[in-house]
């Protein structure tokens, strides 16, 4: 037994000895230089990863910027078929440089400015989406009729004061009679079963402002016609400049009144809940282009309109002689059609969708802007330029404006519309157009050659 235990003990010792003779696991030990090299390699790998990520982000952002630019061009330039007429702008410049045919240059400039005026209004609306209601109202007041104001400034620079007066007057007549008449007429034909309804409060305020503008234009004309000026040749001009300042202040107060004080009562909203919800949803739509893009497009359109307006104004007298059309007809009828083409289409579409408040906002609101902002602003600009522009539009033009405001005020007093009211307004505009076609403005130098040629 002892031998067995001794033998077993020896066996265990031998096993233990064998285990101790096994190779221990290898644990590498690095020097300080190797450790530093590993750390530097890790840092380099992290930096490479960061640079790759930055390059990817830069490439993605550049692709996005290129896509944004292309999308902006596609939205602004290629989204409407009306922009096909843009090619007439460069064509007008080429014809003027090569041939000098003022009649063709004038017609090409008219066609080329039409899509630019529409896109200018679009860019203004997009920019107004990023501002508050007050700033948006000021933007619309400034750029809503920018085409007419740009043409007026270039005409003032050439000393064509009567063209400025008559073109601004024509914008008011076109909006109040032709644009509003077509809106009433087309809306009445689409919605036959009932009369369309609009907000009488808004129409009443605009009618009051238009009558105020008639007062501003009427008194200088009466002062001139009755020869009752205190200082002949000076009192009329001083009265016009004072009245212009008062009208600009009144329009600023109107904007504050509409946008701040009584925007719920006098805002362009529908009388029924369905129309008000639709108008609110349209106002809350997200803009299609960014704020920077809107500013860039606004600058581009304004600059291009300015270039074409210069050629347009320079060709008016030649076009009058070449086409045998009085300058009064060109100024009152043809020039306003350029700036009001987009407004005309918009007002008609709104009326056909039974959104008559929006149609009135386009037609009557634009007339109010021209009467209370455009005309007095032109007088102030002429004052700065040293041009003696006043509010004396002569008796014929003043009487036309007065009768137009009275007729439209009577049409709006009930707060309803139908196709017959629209037809009457269109026929009234045809009478006005025919009257200016046979009217010779003795104060316009451009009419004298036509008189000699007769």
Folded structure, characterized:
Helix 6 runs parallel beside helix 15 and helix 7 packs parallel to helix 16. This protein is globular. It is an all-alpha fold. The chain has a two-stranded antiparallel sheet. The protein is built from 18 helices and 2 strands. The protein starts with a helix and ends with a helix. 78% of the residues lie in helices and 1% in strands. The C terminus is likely disordered.
**What is the gyration radius calculated from CA atoms?**
37 Å
H-E string = HHHHHHHEHHHHHHHHHEHH
Specify the number of helices.
Answer: 18
Number of strands: 2
Q: Give start-end ranges of low-pLDDT stretches.
A: 5-21, 266-284, 445-454
DSSP helix fraction: over 70%
Q: What is the straight-line distance between the termini? A: 156 Å
- Largest β-sheet summary: 2 strands, antiparallel
- By secondary-structure content and strand pairing, the structural class works out as mainly alpha
The portion of residues forming beta strands comes to: under 5%
- Gross morphology is globular
| Mean pLDDT reading | 78
Order of strands, main sheet, comes to 1-2
- Please, what is the oligomeric state? single chain
Keywords:
single chain, about 450 residues, mainly alpha, two-stranded antiparallel sheet, disordered C terminus
List the helices and strands and how they pair.
Blueprint: H1 2-21, H2 32-76, H3 88-98, H4 102-128, H5 133-143, H6 146-157, H7 161-190, E1 196-197, H8 200-225, H9 235-261, H10 263-266, H11 273-283, H12 291-314, H13 316-323, H14 327-352, H15 356-385, H16 394-412, E2 416-417, H17 419-437, H18 448-453
């Amino acid at each position: 037994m002892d031998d067995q235990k001794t033998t077993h003990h020896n066996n265990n010792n031998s096993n233990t000895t064998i285990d101790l003779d096994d190779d221990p696991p290898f644990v590498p030990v690095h020097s300080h230089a190797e450790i530093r090299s590993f750390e530097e390699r890790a840092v380099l790998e992290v930096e490479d990863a960061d640079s790759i990520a930055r390059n990817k982000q830069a490439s993605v952002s550049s692709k996005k910027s290129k896509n944004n630019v292309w999308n902006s061009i596609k939205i602004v330039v290629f989204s409407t078929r009306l922009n096909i007429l843009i090619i007439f702008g460069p064509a007008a410049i080429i014809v003027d440089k090569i041939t000098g045919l003022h009649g063709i240059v004038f017609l090409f400039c008219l066609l080329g400015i039409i899509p630019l005026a529409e896109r200018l209004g679009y860019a203004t609306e997009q920019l107004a989406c990023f501002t508050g209601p007050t700033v948006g109202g000021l933007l619309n007041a400034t750029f809503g009729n920018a085409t007419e104001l740009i043409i007026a400034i270039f005409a003032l620079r050439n000393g064509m004061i009567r063209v400025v007066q008559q073109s601004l007057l024509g914008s008011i007549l076109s909006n109040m009679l032709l644009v509003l008449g077509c809106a009433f007429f087309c809306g009445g034909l689409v919605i036959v079963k009932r009369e369309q309804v609009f907000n009488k409060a808004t129409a009443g305020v605009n009618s009051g402002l238009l009558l105020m503008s008639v007062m501003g234009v009427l008194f200088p004309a009466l002062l001139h016609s009755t020869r009752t000026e205190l200082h002949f040749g000076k009192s009329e001009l001083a009265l016009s400049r004072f009245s212009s300042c008062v009208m600009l202040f009144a329009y600023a107060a109107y904007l504050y009144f509409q946008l701040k004080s009584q925007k719920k009562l006098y805002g362009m909203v529908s009388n029924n809940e369905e129309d008000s919800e639709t108008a609110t949803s349209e106002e809350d739509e997200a803009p299609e282009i960014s704020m920077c893009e809107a500013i860039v497009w606004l600058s581009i359109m304004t600059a291009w309109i300015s270039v074409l307006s210069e050629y347009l104004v320079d060709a008016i007298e030649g076009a009058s002689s070449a086409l045998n059309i009085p300058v009064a007809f060109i100024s009152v009828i043809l020039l306003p059609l350029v700036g009001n083409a987009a407004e005309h289409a918009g007002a008609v579409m709104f009326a056909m969708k039974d959104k008559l408040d929006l149609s009135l906002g386009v037609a009557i609101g634009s007339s109010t802007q021209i009467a209370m902002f455009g005309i007095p602003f032109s007088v102030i600009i002429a004052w700065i330029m040293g041009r003696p522009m006043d509010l004396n539009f002569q008796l014929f033009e003043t009487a036309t404006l007065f009768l137009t405001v009275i007729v439209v005020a009577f049409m709006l007093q009930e707060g309803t519309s139908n196709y017959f009211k629209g037809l009457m307004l269109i026929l009234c505009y045809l009478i006005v157009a025919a009257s200016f076609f046979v009217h010779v403005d003795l104060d316009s130098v451009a009419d004298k050659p036509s008189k000699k040629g007769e």
